[in-house]
Design brief:
CATH architecture of the largest domain in chain A: 3-Layer(aba) Sandwich
Number of strands of chain B: 0
Keywords (chain A): Signal
CATH class of chain B: Mainly Alpha
Radius of gyration of chain A: 23 Å
Largest interface: B-C, 119 and 113 residues
Distance between the termini of chain A: 21 Å
Organism (chain A): Streptomyces phaeofaciens
Protein name (chain A): Sugar ABC transporter substrate-binding protein
InterPro entries (chain A): Bact_solute-bd_prot1 (IPR050490), SBP (IPR006059), TAT_signal (IPR006311)
Order of helices and strands of chain B: HHHHHHHHHHHHHHH
CATH topology of chain B: MetI-like fold
Oligomer: heterotrimer
Family (chain C): Belongs to the binding-protein-dependent transport system permease family.
CATH architecture of chain B: Orthogonal Bundle
Chains: A alpha/beta (about 425), B mainly alpha (about 300), C mainly alpha (about 325)
CATH topology of the largest domain in chain A: D-Maltodextrin-Binding Protein, domain 2
CATH superfamily of the largest domain in chain A: Periplasmic binding protein-like II
Structural class of chain A: alpha/beta
Number of domains of chain B: 1
Strand content of chain B: under 5%
Largest sheet of chain B: none
């Protein structure tokens, strides 16, 4: 670590020299510097958020920041698809954010990018959903504070199923049948997003398998998963699946605009859907795949991390503690006032009126009954490898065994790098 | 000197030339020609039409049951909507793009034309090797050197500044290459005349070469401005603070994670194209004749 | 112009010499003037282009995850990793297909447009503008129009509406790789964006062909139309064609934006840069492997360009000037 910062420093001074050269050799400064005031003062922090779509979220984040007295916290609100490239590029520089939201990723821990937050979480550890604590823990240390849990499941138009005399599907086979019967020349049966990426893990779990097992060994290459992939291929080619909708699965548009009767989406979109469709809305988990399967729900979400390589680690931790540990009012506001998310704090989740009745309560039940959380050791490279499996076998029609074998190779190499 | 100028004027596109095969010149052939061009032009205009249609429609109409060719109720109010948005300062981003675009263009023309002239016209033993060094940079995909380049620029403290947006983009191997090709074909007699007047390379360049190359400079300016205006990934990471966003970054922020606002995206895109159309309409008549004078000619 | 005087009076010996002996100015001090003209550009190129390139090459020999200042030297491991990576080598194949389609099509379309526009007697400026206009559009904007309105897979997409008139069912243009309609979407977007620019290049070249050549050909009995085109126009356009093809090849190799914006989570239709982005530079943050892939790609581009130059005589055209 010290060697690293040393080389950083010498490189930095090299660039200063280069800067001098550049200024002397070519153009001097042209145009003003309209950025933030150059660092130094210990009381200003920068945080990165991806752009949430729900109205009011950006203002809320800034309002919380403003209420904090010990530091001046400025927020960068970054459009969805640009978030990763901008976050990771910035983390390599001195202009890195002091704190940022992301998903638990073991490489962030291994590379020393995120700070250990055990000391601020420990006192309230028991009040957190234990699965959320576990998914942020490496070797007994907790590296991030969960802000919201986002269960993802199917939304459907009750009226359309009733009209066709159909029951809510209990198995993937039944989902295929229902989709076929609901499809008309105007409306497709079901929408899983344009790339199918969102249902990969739910399908693996619903087939009774897992991404990695407790010993961090691959657990996804089972007969159940192969069977599931074959069914998915059938659905993909059936003509009952909505493809190339203008907005992806995370956007409620496809269901709201009547392009599909059933859509895979997240709980966050529930308020928009309820507003548009009223009571004509129901939910169900990803149905079980094969006999050994079990319905599943993916509990995604976002967590706050502190940049361990920044020079204001303690200040950033203070802010995280203040907002995401102490200020329960803001935490509840964040989870429930805009879209619907489940607060990871048990005390908040239990007292939240909005989650106690109706469809939100059903969502919470699916979350607790069938929910699966992120596995911190399941890295981007592995996620991409399973996406390739779906691309090759579901969308392109290749042999599932062959593409899973290919996936095994990538995951194996990755595991070897991580765990030896 | 006069000879070249007239030669250049010969190439003015607006000036009618003897049409090729025009001796056949039948009404039929001419109708067929205009029919073909007309159809091609219509096809080229379809995406613009779609853009405008969506910009002035309501969201339900854009995603309606059926494709409608014209919005039934034109939403003039959509025009001001991007400027009223409180989360994105669209007006500021347009100003930033204009400032960056103009300075980027002026700077690129200055730096690259000088280099192109040096490479083409000034005798130096290793000029070829230097030229190959420039040519090499064309082959390296920019996306690849992107992150090291960004880390470097941020170590200079140029994040969120016009400097950071402009200076790293000035040194375009491609533009330098085009200038070199052009100056290779620049008539030697003109420089001879300058020599009689007792000018050095520097004086000859500014007093004789540049004034006689304005067409070409205008052509390159058009292309450079367009590229600068449209660049996205670099301004995205350099512009950390929304006050330093360019218009492309602002545009991308409309395509947020959830609930797509169709008409706003299309209207903002349409507005972002306007300055380019103005620049283009203003400069385009020099474009063809400017390029006609490059080395890459028949 | 104030820079002129400043630089001229800089306290360097050759600069002083040149105003003193003006008559020798153009001939003498070539070396000094060479660096005077090219210096600013070369310094910038060195800092903002060569340093990042060198940095990339250096990174390619290191295990560099989530860092660009790595310390673990791994030799050629990253190169082995990339060359054994089916997706990357497959992407190099994809590029070849893409280049084989897009280079001749763009060449033909832009030449065709130039020939048409060049024969127009009135409204020439109008049509030239129409064809050049898309050049002003960014790839981001074009992808948006293509994906959301022209080629979306639902009933209100323009393409689906048009084929619907003929009773054809809605097509999922991008999501379904079989049949590979996505090539139609991508190629049409790129043609629309690019052809206008190359048309201008051809138009310029066409206007440089001396009229006498056509007159002479007419005297020799060549029929206007195909014969004149084949024996006069085409050979006269040789230099421009060579340059256009070189530029198109480089552009095809470096294709990124429209693929990135139009196709996601696929294993097909990925040019090398997109593949590199996903394997290395995106969420995965493996700068070592990414840089190794970049070096491989650059070498390949150089090879193909040299090969093309050999065949079409790009170098010769220049030296004859």
């Amino acid at each position: 670590m010290s060697a690293m910062s040393n080389s950083n420093w010498s490189r930095r001074s090299l660039f200063r020299a280069a800067a001098g050269m550049a200024a002397a050799g070519t153009l001097a400064a042209c145009g003003g510097n309209n950025g933030r005031s150059g660092g130094g003062s210990g009381d200003s922090l920068v945080q990165y958020f991806h752009a949430y779509g729900e109205a009011g979220t950006e203002q809320a984040v800034k309002r919380y920041a403003k209420a904090y007295k010990d530091a001046n916290v400025s927020t960068q609100w970054i459009t969805g698809s640009n978030f990763e490239s901008k976050l990771f590029a910035s983390l390599l520089t001195q202009n890195a954010p002091d704190l940022f939201e992301f998903h638990p990723q073991i490489q962030l821990v291994e590379s020393g990018q995120v700070a250990d937050l055990t000391d601020i979480i420990e006192p309230v550890k028991d009040d957190f959903n234990q699965a959320d604590i576990q998914s942020h823990t490496v070797d007994g240390k907790i590296y991030g504070v969960r802000m919201i849990d986002d269960p993802q499941f199917f939304f459907y138009r009750k009226s359309l199923l009733e009209k066709a005399g159909l029951e809510v599907p209990q198995t993937l086979d039944e989902l295929l049948e229902v989709a076929a019967k609901l499809t008309t020349d105007k409306v497709k049966g079901v929408y899983l997003g344009n790339t199918l990426q969102a249902v990969i893990r739910p399908m693996i779990w619903a087939a009774g398998a897992d991404t990695l097992d407790a010993k961090n060994q691959p657990a996804y290459h089972t007969d159940g998963v192969v069977g599931g992939i074959k069914q998915m291929r059938k659905l993909f080619t059936s003509g009952d699946l909505l493809l190339d909708a203008p907005a992806d699965y995370w956007d409620p548009s496809a269901l709201v605009q009547g392009l599909t009767a059933i859509q895979f989406c997240g709980m966050w979109a529930m308020p928009v859907m309820q507003k548009a469709l009223g009571d004509d809305l129901g939910i169900f988990p990803f149905p079980k795949v094969g006999d050994a399967g079990k319905p599943s729900v993916y509990n995604g979400g976002w967590s706050m991390f502190v940049n361990a390589k920044g020079d204001k680690v303690d200040e950033a931790k203070e802010y995280v503690k203040w907002l995401w540990i102490d200020q329960k009012e803001y935490q509840e506001d964040w989870a429930l006032s805009y879209g619907f998310h489940i607060p990871p704090r048990t005390s908040i989740a239990q007292s939240a009126e909005k989650l106690k009745s109706g469809l939100p309560a059903e969502g919470v039940k699916l979350f607790s009954d069938y929910g699966h959380f992120d596995n911190i050791g399941w890295t981007q490279a592995m996620i991409k490898a399973t996406e390739d499996v779906f691309a090759d076998s579901v969308r392109k029609g290749g042999d599932p065994e062959a593409s899973l074998d290919k996936c095994d190779k990538v995951v194996g190499a990755e595991l070897k790098k991580l765990f030896g | 000197m006069t000879t070249t100028v007239t030669k250049a004027r010969d190439a003015v596109p607006g000036r009618p030339r003897t049409p090729r095969g025009g001796r056949r010149g039948s009404v039929l052939g001419s109708t067929g020609l205009y029919l073909a061009v007309g159809v091609a032009a219509l096809l080229f205009l379809v995406p613009f039409y779609v853009l405008i249609r969506n910009a002035f429609a309501t969201d339900p109409e854009i995603t309606g049951e059926e494709w409608t060719f014209f919005p039934t109720d034109i939403q003039w109010g959509n025009i001001t909507e991007p400027f009223e948005d409180t989360t994105v300062d669209f007006g500021q981003s347009m100003v930033n793009s204009l400032v960056v675009g103009v300075l980027h263009t002026v700077g690129t023309l200055l730096v690259c034309s000088l280099a192109g002239y040096g490479l083409a016209r000034i005798p130096y033993r290793h000029a070829d090797k230097v030229f190959y060094g420039v040519l090499f940079t064309l082959m390296v995909p920019t996306a690849v050197t992107f992150v090291p380049g960004f880390v470097l620029v941020s170590s200079l403290g140029w994040i969120d500044s016009y400097r950071g947006l402009i200076i790293p983009g000035l040194f375009s191997g491609f533009t330098c290459f085009l200038f070199r090709q052009y100056f290779l074909g620049f008539p030697k007699e003109l420089e001879e005349a300058a020599r009689v007047d007792g000018l050095g390379y520097w004086g000859a360049y500014w007093r004789v070469v540049v004034p006689n190359s304005l067409n070409f400079f205008a052509a390159i300016a058009t292309i450079t401005f367009i590229n600068g205006w449209n660049s996205f990934l670099w301004p995205l990471v350099i512009g950390q603070d929304p006050s330093a966003w360019t218009v492309q970054v602002a545009l991308s922020s409309y395509m947020t994670n959830q609930t797509v606002n169709y008409h706003l995206i299309f209207m903002a895109t349409a507005i972002s194209l306007l300055p380019l159309l103005l620049v283009f309409l203003f400069l385009q008549r020099w474009l063809v004749q400017g390029i006609a004078q490059t080395g890459i000619k028949g | 112009m104030s820079t002129t005087t400043e630089l001229d009076s800089a306290p360097s010996a050759p600069a002083k010499a040149s105003p003193a002996r003006p008559r020798r100015g153009l001939r003498g001090s070539g070396t000094f003037n060479f660096w005077l003209f090219t210096g600013p550009f070369l310094v910038g190129l060195l800092i903002f282009v060569y340093v990042p390139i060198g940095w990339s090459i250096w990174l390619s020999f290191f295990e560099a995850r989530f860092t660009v200042t790595p310390s673990t030297f791994v030799g050629f491991d990253n190169y082995r990793f990339m060359l054994e990576n089916d997706n990357f080598t497959g992407a190099l194949g994809t590029f070849t297909v893409f280049a084989a389609i897009i280079v001749p099509t763009t060449w033909a379309l832009s030449l065709g447009l130039a020939l048409l526009v060049n024969r127009l007697r009135f409204m020439r400026a109008f049509f030239r503008s129409v064809f050049f206009l898309p050049t002003a559009c960014s790839y981001v904007a074009a992808s948006l129009i293509w994906k959301m309105s022209l080629f979306n897979g639902v009933r209100f997409g323009l393409a689906n509406t048009v084929i619907g008139w003929f009773g054809v069912e809605n097509v999922a243009w991008l999501a379904n790789p079989d049949p590979p309609w996505y090539w139609l979407v991508i190629v049409s977007a790129r043609l629309w964006l690019q052809s206008g620019f190359y048309m201008i290049l051809f138009l310029a070249a066409l206007q440089n062909i001396p009229d006498e050549l056509y007159e002479a050909a007419a005297l020799d009995g060549a029929k206007p139309g195909w014969q004149t085109f084949r024996y006069i126009t085409l050979p006269q356009l040789r230099a421009t064609s060579t340059a256009v093809i070189l530029l198109l090849l480089i552009a095809a190799y470096q294709a990124f934006d429209e693929f990135f914006n139009l196709l996601s989570k696929t294993t097909w239709g990925r040019p090398p840069l997109v593949e590199l982005y996903y394997t290395a530079l995106g969420d995965n943050q493996d700068y070592g492997a990414g840089s190794a892939g970049a070096v491989i790609l650059t070498l390949l581009i150089i090879l193909v360009t040299l090969f093309q130059g050999r065949i079409m005589g790009f170098g010769r055209g220049e030296e004859s000037k």
